[in-house]
Write a structure and sequence with these properties.
The structure is a homodimer. By secondary structure, chain A is mainly alpha-helical. The first copy, chain A, has a three-stranded mixed sheet with strand order 1-2-3. In chain A, strands 4-5-6 form a three-stranded mixed sheet. Chain A is built from 22 helices and six strands. Chain A folds into three domains: 124 residues, MgtE N-terminal domain-like (MgtE N-terminal fold), CATH 1.25.60.10; 101 residues, CBS-domain; 170 residues, Tetracycline Repressor, domain 2 (Orthogonal Bundle). In chain A, helix 3 packs across helix 5, helix 19 runs parallel beside helix 21 and helix 19 runs antiparallel to helix 22. Chains A and B meet through helix 12, helix 13, strand 4, helix 15 and helix 16 of A and helix 12, helix 13, strand 4, helix 15 and helix 16 of B.
Chain lengths: 450, 450
Amino acid sequence: MQSFELNKTDTLRIKQALEDEDENALKVLLEEYHASEIAILFESLSEESREHIINILPADVASEVISEMDAEMHPEKLLEKLHPEKRSEIVEELDYDDATDIISQLPQERQDEILQDLDAEDASHIRNLLTYEEDTAGGRMNTQVIKVNSSLTKKEALDEIIRQSEEMEEFYTINVVDNSNRLKGIVSLKDIIKSRNTVHIRELVNDDFVYVKANTDQEEVAKLLSQYNLSSIPVVDDDMHLLGRITFDDVIDVLEEENTEDILKISGVSEDEELSGNWKEAVRSRLPWLIINLGTAFLASSVIRYFEPTISRLVILSGYMTMIAGMGGNAATQALAVTVRRISLNDLTDNQAYRTVLKEITVGLINGAANGLIVFAFALIYDSNLMLGLVIFFAMTGNLVIAGITGASIPLLLKRVGIDPAIASSIIITTFTDVFGFLILLGLASRLLL
Amino acid sequence: MQSFELNKTDTLRIKQALEDEDENALKVLLEEYHASEIAILFESLSEESREHIINILPADVASEVISEMDAEMHPEKLLEKLHPEKRSEIVEELDYDDATDIISQLPQERQDEILQDLDAEDASHIRNLLTYEEDTAGGRMNTQVIKVNSSLTKKEALDEIIRQSEEMEEFYTINVVDNSNRLKGIVSLKDIIKSRNTVHIRELVNDDFVYVKANTDQEEVAKLLSQYNLSSIPVVDDDMHLLGRITFDDVIDVLEEENTEDILKISGVSEDEELSGNWKEAVRSRLPWLIINLGTAFLASSVIRYFEPTISRLVILSGYMTMIAGMGGNAATQALAVTVRRISLNDLTDNQAYRTVLKEITVGLINGAANGLIVFAFALIYDSNLMLGLVIFFAMTGNLVIAGITGASIPLLLKRVGIDPAIASSIIITTFTDVFGFLILLGLASRLLL
């Protein structure tokens, strides 16, 4: 499927070489792999082995491995442990934005220590990047960016581009700036190559282009890149001075991050729980939500307590209670997932929001009646009780309508007031279906069945 | 934030011009906007207005608008309605992969009609692409790809690249092929520009590169692109013949799609429900899951029926039942979300899978005991019943351990046998916590409290 991939045998051989402390075998084995494959291999190695391998690798490969390591493997801790000289070599090879991301995870005094050892220019670039919020365009951008002055000729520009590109892996669009580094537009390398030698860049520049300010939210940047099919987007300050660029690979990371947050929040897990974190972290992240849920469960059970006399005269109800509550909860989760995902991909107009709620009410009515009919038939045949069947039919239908209303309208309302709609987790939503489900079932039962 | 964006006033003006049938005003207004902005505007327009605008726009802009339209707006229906001549013009402007995606949504005879009107070369490209499965590399790739023969000199290659790039918006890496179109490697444009005029491409080619077969799953392609930070990836057949390439913007779409599928499946919604679909579609997608859930609810309620004598002697239990079941369901959903998301980002080794289950058991034990203690205190104070409190404490703890075991191990097992782990929706998982929760609570209660 691809020309190289780390297979099980290789992994075992590398582990064996580590165990035998056979440096030569290790070096030969590692040379075969791409840095991102070594980063994947790291997942199954101890911290000591990771450090060992980083020390063996040439600085440029080591830095690539470190930049490819998942944030959850804590590359900053690995960096911290290295010999200062090796560490500086590696950090200087890193792209500034990657170096900043990793270093920003360390405490202030450790950051300063690492920056002191770097050459002055690199240190100042990184220090500058450390001042931006992590989740903004400034925090995501790379300050290494190819730019040419609009007054250059084609020949001069090409030479300049090739000089600047020495340190960069890839470049696609060239930014055009004036004498005070203000962004005037972009030009494609293709257009430069195609033009006559005497042409000036200002004749080729495209001034109808997309850019972002440094404080733009990263999710917004991802949307723009994907909307306009750009491979990179320039970042400017308030006076249009060119600060850096964000490339599509940063955006892929942003999308994965935002999607993880959505799926966790909707399931009542705090968004910053690390997926591979240990049990302590998981308890810290989830226990608060469960305690909130316990509070809402007390609310639901107080409805049941209120109707205890009804239940004690008709114990059969308790079996149906769990059905009504369970079905309501699941139908609400369905409506919630569809609505949250829809909002997170597109903003809805008032009219679209209104029609979404209306649609969910219709869906609740139909799904409720369909399931209500099944339970009605069961009550009629198994419990031989027509009235009980009717009560359950209405409770099921009513609760699935409530599920539709809450599942759609709560995330929409949250979005309207500027709160992340995914926080309307299943925990919040099921409170409504539990409480109302029991109220309808037991309320009707105490009126009609006793 | 960016140099142009459709604001509310513009939208209103365009709508006004549509209403007044003022073609000139409409043309002037539309000229101001990027195709992707017009595609967004389309969301709030009727089908007639969309058709009207497409007919006014020049074919190249119209085709870009159509390729930017969300699949949920059904661009294929818009295309179907256009005058055949206009339609052919637009389809010929589309990238082959976009044209194929859109046309593939139509019934066979409509597809043939559209293809007949196209020029022979375009039609054969699209016919060829239509043979690949939608979710594979072949279904996603674009057959317009820049390639040079490895025997060309630098000068010849540059001319060739510029000639081939006339029809393409962007290109980053050049594919190198032999005389029978077999992919030999890649070369960056940068390396070509930097080299001497007499150098042959074969001296510059990088043969350590990533490629995919046409039948590779699109999710796998997305992983490779993001893992190796590539802006595009070549697609080959079994004999290494170059078929096309997949670019990062296709991959961003894939990621959004896969993430929507995950979040829907985990919430018990069928993965192909369109987020903005109507109620009929929503009922079709969700009712089957709710009926499955009803079946499992019958299972849970049969446990309750079995213990009816216990409940009728101790009605107070029914309030606690809903707490135990509700908390178990939510804790299971938490464990499920974290595990599913983790598996979808990375494959786990056996050892990691084992430790994941172990971690979730620990988390269940701690969160269960913490919540159990609260409910124990409540039962002691409010119901003055020590033994009842103990029973509830053990039921809560036990059920949250079961929540952890099922929430983590069911998706892991599904992954092991090759089924999408996200199918282990909250509906399946909560069955276990309902049934076991009631069994523990009512079983203990009938032994210890009566």
